Fold each of these.
Amino acid sequence: MKLAAIENPRSRQEELGQFLTATPVADFMASMFGPLPRTVRLLDAGAGAGSLTAAFVSRCCEKLDGVRAIEVTLYELDGEILDALSETMRGCEHRCADAGIRFTFIIHSADFIQEMSARLAGDLFGTHPPAFDVAIANPPYRKIGTDSAERRALRSVGVETSNLYTGFIAIIQRLLVPGGQLVGITPRSFCNGPYFRPFREDFLSHLELRRLHVFESRQAAFRDDSVLQENIIFHAVKGRHQPSELIISSSSGEHGDGITETVFPFAEIVHPHDREKFIHIPSTASHATAKETMDGLSSSLASLGVTVSTGRVVDFRLKDALRKEPERGTVPLLYPCHFNGGTVHWPKLEARKPNAILDNDETRPWLVPSGVYLLTKRFTSKEERRRLVACLFDPDQVKTKWVGFENHLNYFHTCGHGLERTLAVGLYAFLNSTVVDQYFRRFSGHTQVNATDLRTLAYPDRDTLQAMGRDMKTLDLSQDEIDQLVTKHLHACR
């Protein structure tokens, strides 16, 4: 069945948060559904040109597994794509007619979140929300502001989230009948981080995960759109009891390449006692090895007497206090650009960022007293080998009484003051190790490292970290040397 052609300029895609599903990805998603009822009520919210529904129809027509009728409800807000969507649906009609399946469809050119939130909340008098047996979704991906119409609509039905895609999924699951199935392709960012915690709790309370699929390439799913967000596909069933195990699969994303599948206990994907409900997705052997190593660690940052916080200085709020070069009355202001290997290189006058901030009554609450601090980048570029990039701030190298850490940094401290040096160096070695990086990638599919993510990690005990710190004579070690040092001490503490 040929899909209708559609042109969608990049600027319009970004405005709508819309990225169309390639046919091979749509076909793979349709293949993930389990047994279907004889009459299937299908929801395709954010339908685009209809590739997901077309793939689902093809699956039903080819499998001939008892489906006798398909009733499709489609939502698409972009008026410029509606003709292509209608043409695709007419193709589905012909395909189903040839297979002896009754096919009907209705296209709503309306805002899915606004309309369905109102119906779920009972705001539309006498209009009950529809019910669906199956949903297939590539929801729009776009941040939504705290006071936006979408955010208010979602709150009216008990959904708190900061992105359209999670809002779509939350509404869709509310429209499924018990046992109804959902296959969706979304960014992986909901799997961790504090902003998506309410969504994870909602998702895991109402949907039973059956399968998660990851792509080995960050660009694989939406190559033509230059999307760098890491994406996953999930299959879930409406219900309140998670399975004892589920399938994790992966592929390169290239057409025709093989898919690897592994069955994991559900408790390894969402740890039973994790209050954050992080979703871990091991996709390589090294991820599994990293989990085994990290499971052997029992210390938390709190038990170590250490805290991690986000840098206090939000530069645009203190713009008048920033200085390109240090001058009398200023103190160092550190950004990720000041990372130089394992230590801070300051000042960096060739950088575009300021190097200093005034020390006065206005700025002092956002500064910290000088000391030994471990810093990590909150955002890493896609080119960097590691998601976790740690660096030591050494007061012997940067002489100052106070220092400012910009908001794109996390900093480890003890009650707002610096760390004991050997402990800081031990944490530096541990966080820069490959085993921690691989473990971190199990639950983080994007380049952001939140302070919450760092708090949830397990750490070696204080004695082991201090032993690592004493053994690390210089911070300028290769990755292999750091890994060997960390492995030696982790084995010794078992």
Note: Residues 121 and 205 are 19 Å apart (CA to CA).
Amino acid sequence: MPSRKSAEEVVQEERDRLLLEATTKGFITNYSGIRTSSNGKRFYIEDTILWNVLDEQNQYYGQAAFFSTWKFIT
């Protein structure tokens, strides 16, 4: 699922700011927030690292994220 669809509407502005920061710096660390899975379950992620992905020509391709701490929200 595209990440833009996993963030709740109320935090889209903050998400956009963080993505821009990652684009500018190349990465961000320690992001935490509520996301929604492709089947609609909400979960909280912590200590996320987000970085830019570049292609073979070193051109911006997109972004990727890693998080190992998460929990479903009921």
Note: Strands lie at 27-36, 42-54, 60-66, 69-72.
Amino acid sequence: MLIDIHGHISTDTPATRVATYAGVANIDYVLISNRDAARVGDDARDWDEATANSATLAAAREHQRLRPLYWLRPGQVDSNIHAIAGALASEPFAGAQLAPAEVGVALSDGVLGAYLDTLALVEKPLAICIGNDNLTIPDDAYELARSHPRVPIVLCGCNASTERRNEMADVVRWTSQRNDADLYLDTSHATAPGIAAIVSAVGAERVLFGTNALSYDDTHLPRHIALIDELRATLSPADAETVLSQNAARIFGNPQSEGR
């Protein structure tokens, strides 16, 4: 099995494009959230939370290779903790997605506590987009994870610099050493040697395959597809299986075992 945990749909990136990528790359599942709910940025469409996440559910129902993540808009009037809990408990969302730079909330903002409490209650993980901005400081992600140790949190590189990715790896390594949070790192925008170095530093059990491949134009897709074979050649068979599928299935659930 092969699972890519980092994908997005939007008006500019329709679900059919993501599903086509998954099929061509022979990826069983791509986890998707809806960037039309972003409220910050030149291309932000600021869809309300319910509308955006309903569209994500519809996309996943239409395309079997797509699995939905619930896009969070903390602090907005359209974002209701009780509605989120109900949606995550009753709909096939694999977890939640937080993109601080796109919704204008810092990882250090106290408003996030109630959201993490809700995820702990419904036993769902959280994926966080980490960039080079001051809203997504990896140390703040660590503190958030440490204060909510029951919530698996995956740090996803969103065009993060090498320095920022090193900071992300550092906090995941601290987590592994101290065993005080449930924190992970995805592989987005990294090369096979870079991913091998991350696995060596933090352990394969803390790394999940994610590409954010559709943030590039289609001419870049062959490189992402080739990366899968490169990883299988670079990592040990056990580590490759752990990174490419087992961790994602454990954290986000395996639809095959859930009878999808």
Note: The longest strand covers residues 3-9.
Amino acid sequence: MRFASINRLGKDFLDGHLVFTEPYNETLCFHRIEVVTKNAVVHHFKLYDKSELTDELKMYMRMAYQIGTRKHLDRKK
């Protein structure tokens, strides 16, 4: 399952998204959250500097990877 994507590499930015099964509205890491289906919620981010790759965003990246590998389903059993 696709869990992340780089949508665009600009001259001074990286525009990407992560896919989750629920929205994470409580963070400022994402500038747009788009509900695609009941179990696919796309969270868009944009980075202008490597310092914007914060520990919080890295945590969300790890979470999206877990969803991509479907490990989140193991926890629901």
Note: The two ends are 20 Å apart (CA to CA).
